[in-house]
């Protein structure tokens, strides 16, 4: 077991059943530096040997993927097993499968954030990255599955050589907007959350290359609480935007089916059913990835059994939702009296594709039932195998929906039996290669756990909590452990201001209050994570960011409706399916997505602009001791430009705060 | 070395391929040697093409022209008014097995692109068969022979016509003895004339005619019954009752197009009456599919059924049959109900009935039918007789035996084979090929350098029927012109020209021969005027053979009685000794069309099999023998054994199986070589196609037949559901039930009121719509080929059909209907129904809304239009099409097409690229062309002016097209019929194509018969 190297296996089990007892989210350690060292260590230490063969395999499979895509593009869609009636096969199955997996990240980040589920912090970064890579894989398939790939850009509402616009009444176009928005917002969310951690990596960089790239990526983040303040608001807004988004994306994907008239597709249960399935498969994928990762990178104390157990419980719950959906479909098919629907479902369960149906039911409904047993949901091996089986089952769910419905629709003369070609299979396998390539690069080069967020939920981060400030280690000792590079920006022999550091939250808060009361305005507090109460202690007023985001969202909504009206009802009106030329209900999905897209971009840009980021060069960066602002120490800085600044008085004030000795920071 | 370097490469590989006949290997060969390498026109392609085009424009003064301008008379325009880009139609004819079908060929700037029926022609009436229409592709076949080949001492030399002429002249001078000619059956007066001259000029020359598939049994049967050979001409329109014994007049008759038209006209119930059709046959035919009463009996048992009918008529109704036939040997064990019903109906409709017997039945059976028709007073009404055009001709089967024995005993020194492919299709026991090699000097004229050519000294390329001057006679004798649409692409010559080449040093032009023969036949008229008119019309009216009223001929009937007694006495086939029926293939006929891709890929009307021939067998027999659909069986008959894939076909008689000939060609060309299994080895010189004592043994191997329907073996669940749905999709009732409740077809499905969420669009101006009469449709496939030719629909090949990627825009769904609760392997008696299915142009088309790039939209005149250029190929529209009529270009199917094959393309229709969806357009190009014409003339479009290709060619006029906004249009009236219904209306998609329900008229089951009650359970109300 992985636990053998750790202090105590007893401590590892933080899955107590007693709800009144708050089990720790980080085991065995309470100091912030431990989190920094552990997480950054994955990136900074020598790569575990297993990473190389894994990466080699993943890259090879990616090569297979690209070879298959090249073959497809040069030869034709006929290299796949598609036919009439089953004109959608593996590509769409894989698309829905990957999009589904891409739901866990945003769900964990956004919804659990809104629900104040603190345990999310250890896994959200990881899950968000997984989301993005899964969406990359998902986005690949609709792109290559069209007959004329080189014209796929006609899906975008841009003027093209045909002098025409896309058809906004098509669910596929809604899909383009939904998946596009989702990919963009997930990327923003992920990147924004990573900014403080990238700054940590920058500050710990020992090579110039690392220092340069992490420096560039972190946009000059300096842990300023004035930044944290807007950062947190932006994060909250993004979470609030991503929550309906994550629910909408798979709903829109399900519209591809639900809006059509194919028996087995045309059903109102699809949106919730797809969303539940997406969460289900997304969590399963997180578990599949996290179990080996925490083992090989020794992260058991940060990604604990409690995290895994919680995920098992979610899988149990969503698995049962999916099971309920399966039975509801059957019930409705029978109860509706629609003979075509009734046959479709009987055919699923007992027709030529019965094998796929029963794989789906076994994996998705029966397998999660083992999580009723605590022993099972705390056993790594059982969980790991179960999560893989769930993913198999979820892939088959999409296969059953897409293929079995199409293979036998209305006219018995056209019934057929779809079989994938070898190209289909290799493309699917290759997409795993792409996914794992990106994933392995991610865990190697980026912080896979949100350090700032984990630190924020540690007991020491909370004002007045017992155990704070336990760690009083020597600064120099730690620096010996991990060296840091000197900031080599241009130095002016002027004074930027004074800097004082603290080793715990309480001193910081008290100090900040004193500085505030002294009437300073150009000063700041710095902390490696969001310190609650610091805003009040510093006297910062609420940010105007929400107004910006609202305005951006409103713009997006108006843009979405106008775009559809202009393109489909004004500039080039055309008649489809006897429908009206302009009708608001059909425009809602796209308008919704543009709303979210604009608002999310507004949130990120607003945060950056208000914070004055990117600002790659700042006097504080040049201070060697300030590097721990992204690690485990807390600072107050007063700028020389403050109207009240007085070399002696200000120094005296700072010295009275009980921190380290006051430093003069060069400008 | 002057050998045939252009084709040997491919053929060399193809022979290896026969050793290792794996599909992978063949695919590899195809890739290694793409068609382009050897399919090009011989010399500078473009120049040759222009020259060829120019020639057929009929413009004077071009030196390249073989024919001066006045000889080709356009159907619609005079040449001086020709406008480039405006298609013209020319009347010509296509002959098959001695009967000419008049056709109109559309020529586009000199390129013939489409064959349609000639409305003036008695056997066409404006429609053409699938085979006739496919002639266009045969014309542009890149594998057609383009060289005169001399094969000598194992070497091949390319020669020219002059070299052949001088070599042949030398030969005829050196040894004019022992000359024989073997020709195909031909009705051409010109060929007859040159034949006479040849026989007069060459002393001792003999002329044989051989067709592997003929109606000689009928001819000989009439000789028995009436003392001289006669030609039987059926007139279904004058009948009330038709009884068919192992015969398929609606499809397999030289007049099938006319008969289908006449039959369909009788199926429209007028004054509560409808004709009645009885069929006794061993395996489903299209006629059998339309029968009101049908029994599946072994082919060898059909005679007994007919004898029983005759006996019943004589005994029960006192109809005087000739003495010789009165006391016929008993035909026990046949279906008494069927016999009684047929007898009663024939008697009740004396003088308005018709008894027909099929060409594979022995002459004695035909004699019996003739006697019956005579006794019932049908002669002169339901059928007429004409004098046989060549009464002295021995039957084809005898002719080939005679020729072979002459070859064997060395009395043939020189053999000229005009067309045909006897090495492939002569009776196997004659060993024709070996004896042919023994003939010192042999000449073969044929379209392809085929099996026979390769064993002859000379191979001469033949001009295609669309390239040659000629003439012919319809089945009833009407003179029919044949004029070339294009100069011979490969320098071929017609049979008439080759025979004259043999006779004279200076070649005579075919045109002159034909003209002179016509001049001689039409004395005392202004010949130029007459000739122009004849070419314009394609026929000369009133040239049908005079009707004969023969009397019965006692001695012949007495002989027939003996033969009949023998036949009836035969033991029935059983599991150990099955009966095998060899049939002409509905597509490649006797193999002569094997290299025609359209025909190869055309789904067989009944089995829906493409690119193969399969052994059909009844479900119960298959079960008894332990054989399943798709099994490969070893078939042994006499001393031959073959391996064949099995197709289990309902409606087949027990212990009877059938397989078509015409496949397994060794040298058909790149399309047809090696497709299917050659079943000619089963044929014997005894001339019968009913082979007894056949054994089937499963080999344990399986073979994937490329079918366009039932792509996989169906499970019990799907089988039950299919049966459940058919009644609603293909609505059918008995005549009595329909008369009792004319609205019954509208009560077959129940659904909530169809309401729209939004205000419906108003459709003004012309609104196109279609009506398809299932009561008229025989399932003959003519529309499928017409659509393919008109709309440049690509071929996909066998493997892609297996992959369910066939491209036909129009398909004919064929269903077998069985009573509920019948297991899939017990459906011997299943009823067969057809439903032509193509895009129904829904007003609320589900395909349109789902297209993200708006590539499929609704036009103001109601078409569901497809903008190919806009399509990016998401295929969503196909998924959302409940009829599954959309087709997708999974590959670039035109990539490997030979240049010459591209000449067939209709320039009015886009050739679709890879990755694009396509489907029926209601022939929008024809609509637009008529619209332009009407606008130029400042008049509205007249009803019936716009005719899509499928409707144009439908022999039975099952398809009507027109403006739905015009209440007087034919289509509006049909849609107002009680029988009109639309499929899947409950989806509120508002299809613009409506179907007219099928009616059947079973005997003596007035009111509540079991079919009616069975039908009720198909309706949705019981669900």
Helix-strand layout with pairing:
The complex is a heterodimer of chains A (667) and B (1023).
Chain A: H1 9-12, H2 32-44, H3 51-75, H4 90-101, H5 103-114, H6 124-145, H7 171-203, H8 208-217, H9 225-258, H10 270-296, H11 305-335, H12 339-350, H13 354-366, H14 374-377, H15 380-407, H16 422-445, H17 451-456, H18 475-481, E1 495-502, H19 505-518, E2 523-526, H20 534-538, H21 545-571, H22 584-611, E3 634-639, H23 647-655, E4 663-666
Antiparallel strand pairs in A: 1-3, 1-4, 2-3
Chain B: H1 5-19, H2 23-32, H3 36-39, H4 45-56, E1 88-96, E2 99-108, E3 111-117, H5 130-133, H6 135-139, E4 148-152, E5 155-159, H7 161-174, E6 179-183, H8 189-201, E7 206-209, H9 216-226, E8 230-234, E9 241-245, H10 256-266, E10 276-281, H11 286-289, E11 293-296, H12 302-317, H13 323-326, H14 336-348, E12 353-357, H15 363-375, E13 383-387, H16 396-408, E14 414-418, H17 422-425, H18 432-437, E15 441-446, E16 458-461, E17 470-473, E18 479-482, H19 495-503, H20 510-521, H21 527-537, E19 539-540, E20 547-548, H22 554-569, E21 578-583, H23 597-601, E22 609-610, E23 615-617, H24 619-625, E24 631-637, E25 640-648, E26 656-660, E27 690-702, E28 706-707, H25 716-729, E29 732-734, H26 735-740, E30 768-773, H27 782-790, H28 798-802, E31 811-817, E32 831-837, H29 846-850, E33 856-858, E34 864-866, H30 876-879, E35 887-888, H31 899-902, E36 917-918, H32 924-936, H33 949-953, E37 959-963, H34 970-975, E38 980-981, E39 993-996, E40 998-1000, H35 1010-1016
Parallel strand pairs in B: 6-7, 6-14, 9-10, 9-12, 10-11, 14-15, 15-16, 21-26, 23-25, 29-40, 30-39
Antiparallel strand pairs in B: 1-2, 2-3, 4-5, 4-16, 8-13, 13-20, 17-18, 18-19, 21-27, 22-28, 23-26, 24-25, 24-27, 30-37, 31-32, 33-34, 35-36, 38-39
Helix pairs in contact in B: 8-19, 8-20, 9-15, 9-22, 12-14, 12-15, 15-22
